[in-house]
Write a structure and sequence with these properties.
By secondary structure, the protein is α/β, with parallel strands linked by helices. The chain has 2 domains: 185 residues, Metallo-beta-lactamase, Chain A (4-Layer Sandwich); 129 residues, Rossmann fold. 25% of the residues lie in helices and 24% in strands. It contains 8 helices and 19 strands. It is globular. It binds zinc ion (2 copies).
Length: 344
Amino acid sequence: MNVLEFTAKGIYCPAADVYLDPWQPVKKALITHGHSDHARWGHEQYLCTIAAEPIIKHRLQLTDNIQSVAFGEKVMINGVQFSFHPAGHIPGSAQIRVELNGEVWVFSGDYKLQHDGLSEPFEPVKCHAFITESTFGLPVYAWQPQADVFDDVNRWWRKSQEEGKVAVLAGYALGKSQRILKNVDATLGKIMVHGAIETVTNIFREQGMTLPPTVRVVPEMKRADFEGALVICPPSAIGSPWLRKFEPFSLGIASGWMGLRGTRRRRGADRGFVLSDHADWRELNLAVRETGAEKVFVTHGYSEIFARWLTEHGLDAREVKTQYEGELSEMAEATAAEDKALEA
Ligand SMILES: [Zn+2]
Ligand SMILES: [Zn+2]
């Protein structure tokens, strides 16, 4: 019996009879973070970090069937020891460490190594077997330092103001939007947000995070209310009638996929900012090395290619099929919205 197994319902620990980020309803689920491909509806019991709990509770409308633990706190379930360690992906996100009879496995969930100024910084965890994502597991993905990206965002915002345009920046509602808020130059002007983003941001504020003031965009507002503003919206708003009230505007998208030629044009954006909450190629390799793991399982992303690369470098690596989506989900969501707009 392995410490963890890959089943049709999700990653399973048979000794403890619990699942990690399962995609089918189960009795007990240990959840790495609140994104919808990891925290799903329908489980009987949930366990996550204290920092991730308010968001998961809100998104899944949970009441008393969720429990939480501090980072690093040890939990024993049927003789198996579990603990959650910072994944640096979004605030509260964790890697899950599982230890049984001295054998240690770590499930990374989604992660990044570059500190975003908001999430608890990624912590390497020594293990025998490491389950890693590979969303951006190709050498072409090499992120710029975050400060450089935000210099670009600030320049674009100023330029939009000079041209009499509203700067509209699309970024995922949970994690990416708050990272933008935290790092953009808030002295440049008003920051206005889509309702979906305001809700998540307020949950973070209630948890004690300091973020610049935001104004929620409401239907009654007129074009003059948006003069000189930066408007942050989820990717699903791209191509929707909601955007029209900002005209004339400049549309920016913040995503790891903006590094790919063609992606930006396909989405009709004026500017693409390469900003990802996932590890780039170098970070994936570094993370795998730092675990010291001999056995590596590669989940969502360029899993086949990345697993082969690791194998060629002396590791026992293989691809595993999961239903996690990385940043693919936000791309798919935005593309679907765009297609709908084109049909209309
Ligand atoms: Zn995620
Ligand atoms: Zn994911």
